[in-house]
């Protein structure tokens, strides 16, 4: 998904660089469709990140309550996985925001 978002942003940059945009309404509809796809992906990653974070906190809590080394190990694994989830969600969020801006630039032309 990350590569798709990057390629689509580059494609829109090329179109914005042109003086005249053909089939402007079709292009705007296509952009809105792509935005919906990326919004859905962003929502899914937000939900996964949220539950992964909650699970990580629970592992820490159970580890502190039970003094179980296995829970601390799971907490560590959760922390290690949590940061890539955050970075990927951050990329999706910023990429989708850039699509909004490009949509409005094209609409103004």
- Rg over CA atoms, rounded to whole Å, is 20 Å
Average of the residue pLDDT scores: 91
Q: How many individual helices?
A: 3
Order of helices and strands: HHH
Which parts are unreliable, with pLDDT below 50 for 5 consecutive residues or more?
A: none
What's the shape? rod-shaped
Structural class comes to mainly alpha
Q: What percent of residues are in strands? A: under 5%
Percentage of residues assigned to helices: over 70%
Topology, number of strands: 0
End-to-end Cα distance? 28 Å
Described by strand count, sense and barrel closure, the largest sheet is: none
How would you explain this protein's 3D organization?
By secondary structure, this protein is mainly alpha-helical. 91% of the residues lie in helices and 0% in strands. The protein has three helices and no strands. It has helices at 2-17, 24-66, 69-108. Helix 1 (2-17) packs parallel to helix 3. The longest helix is centred in the middle third of the chain and has 43 residues, at 24-66.
Quick rundown:
The chain is built from three helices and no strands.
Key structural traits:
single chain, 109 residues, mainly alpha, 3 helices, rod-shaped
SSE layout:
Elements: H1 2-17, H2 24-66, H3 69-108
């Amino acid at each position: 998904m990350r590569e798709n978002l990057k390629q689509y942003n580059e494609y829109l940059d090329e179109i914005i660089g042109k003086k005249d945009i053909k089939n402007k309404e079709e292009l705007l509809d296509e952009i809105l469709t792509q935005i919906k796809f990326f919004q859905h992906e962003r929502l899914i990653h937000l939900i996964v990140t949220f539950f992964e974070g909650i699970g990580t906190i629970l592992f820490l809590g159970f580890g502190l309550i039970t003094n179980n080394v296995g829970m601390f190990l799971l907490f560590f694994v959760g922390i290690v996985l949590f940061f890539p989830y955050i970075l990927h969600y951050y990329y999706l969020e910023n990429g989708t925001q850039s699509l909004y801006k490009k949509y409005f630039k094209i609409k103004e032309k």
